[in-house]
Structure formats: C-alpha cells, structure tokens
Amino acid sequence: MRRKETNLTHSKLANDLLNYINNHIETQINIDELAAEFGLSKFHFHRIFKEQTGSNIYETIRSVRLQKASNLLITNKYSTITQIANMCGYSSQTSFIRVFKERFSQTPKLWRNGGYKAYSNAILSGTCNALLTHTDFSHLEAKIVKTKPKSVYYIRQKGYNRQAVQIWQKMMAWVYTNEIEQYEQIAIYHDNPIITPLHECSYVACIAPMDDKKLKNTSLPIFEMYDGLCATFEVEGQYNDMLKLIQWVYHEWLPESGYEAITIPSYTIFEKNHFLSDDGLFKCTYYLPVKYV
Fold this sequence. Notes:
This protein has nine helices and nine strands. It is of the alpha+beta class. The protein folds into two domains: about 1-130, Arc Repressor Mutant, subunit A (Orthogonal Bundle); about 145-290, Multidrug-efflux Transporter 1 Regulator Bmrr, Chain A (Alpha-Beta Barrel). Strands 1, 2, 3, 4, 5, 6, 7, 8 and 9 form a nine-stranded antiparallel sheet that branches. A hairpin with an 8-residue loop joins β8 (about 265-270) and β9. The protein is globular. It starts with a helix and ends with a strand. This is Regulatory protein SoxS.
C-alpha cells in the first residue's frame, strides 16, 4: 500500500514539473530552486523524474525548448532567429544555433527554409509506414474552441508504437473495475511525434470519467488537463493516418493559420480507438493547443 501511495506521489511530482517546464520554457529554469520548493534534494528530484518519465530533467527542458523553436521557426515568419531563441529560453543566438544543429542536424535557417519537411519525412519513414498512407487532409476545417478543465487518470508509456494497445487494455480494465459508464479516452503526445523518433516519444493513455461516481480503485495517477484555446480537427482512419494528420496540421495548416502552437502537448479524444478496435480504425477529434498571433 505504501509503495502504491509513493508511486502516486512521485507521479504527481513529475507531472507538476512537466507542467512547470511547459509553462515557463522561455525562462531560465533553476532546478535547485524547484527541488527546494518540492522539499527534495536535487539528487532525489532528478531520480524521481527519471523514474517516472524515462528522461532526465535537463534533457526534457532542452527537448521542449527545441520543439517550441522548431514550430516558431515555421509559424513566426517575421521573427528573427535571435528573437525565437529568446522566446525559447536561450540567452544567445550562438548557443541556440549550436544545440539546434545538434538536435536536428541542420541550422535554424535551413530548417525555416524547408528543411523541416525532409527531417520529418525521415523520422516517419525510418520508424513506421506513415509515409505510405495517401490520406488527404486538405479538406479538413479547423474549429477553434476553448476547452474546459478535466481530471484524467493515466498510464504513461515511453515510445509511440503499437504496444500502446497493452496500456489501453489496462486502462479499460480499470474502467470496468470501477464500473465507469461515461468516460472519454484521451491520448496525449508529450513529444511531437513528427520530429521526435517514435521510440523516444512519451505517450500517455488517459481516461476522463464524466460522472461523479465514487471510484472503487484509484490506483492510477491523476492530473488536470490543459484548459485553453485549441484548434480541433475531426478525422477517422487507421494507425499510420494519425501521424500523417499531425504532420499535416503542423506543416500545412499551422503556418497559414494565423495561430501559433504553444508548448502544451497536443492530444486526441477518441470516439473509436484504433488500439482497441477489432478493425484497427479510429474516429477522433485531434486537439492542438494554440494562441492567437
């Protein structure tokens, strides 16, 4: 029982820190001060976060900064590279260019001039068959909505792959155990899967109960989802279509939209979940947190 309580406490700490990083990524995040605020030594702070997420804190901060920069270079056409570096927490253009090139094997300038398309295609072709799908998303119309806060129970997985069926089955076993009748199935992409190798992505399977029924088993960790402005897209298809949809949203729709993606992860609310359906098809609404620019 104590181990279960400890795991829930550690999971909450990791999620609180992830939320802090996403919401303050433009600042110089001080890990020593954060560890002290959580009442932990720096060593235990790092150990708990790595245990829960599979990544260390500094790697996560750098990843979130560079994912934000990769989007801003595409959508913020009138911002200089120095300005974008500052928006992502880098104090100098030189250091930003160096770490960007280490991560994406090209300079920010080359990325902005179209290099992002080749990089993304290489990610998808090297890890799955997403490029083989010929699904056309150009007919999709975005709806801009203001989402409401909701509490979700979840299981996190390192890697975005077909093994996600296992954690979704566990989530459904939890639903049946608690006799929950009204709920949403939500998938959260903590890393952008079109620019991050899929085996490195953090994927989160969530259940959001839609009633006030008292749960019999609360062994799963819980957190509050983002409530704010989102662009939404209603779509149906099969496994590989989801990655192509995300690529189309970021690379085709977003640059011309007048909106900017923020560091809050995108997510999907399923009407039909391809990881659980017998035919491997999904029907869902994809949510991209954005801000007006």
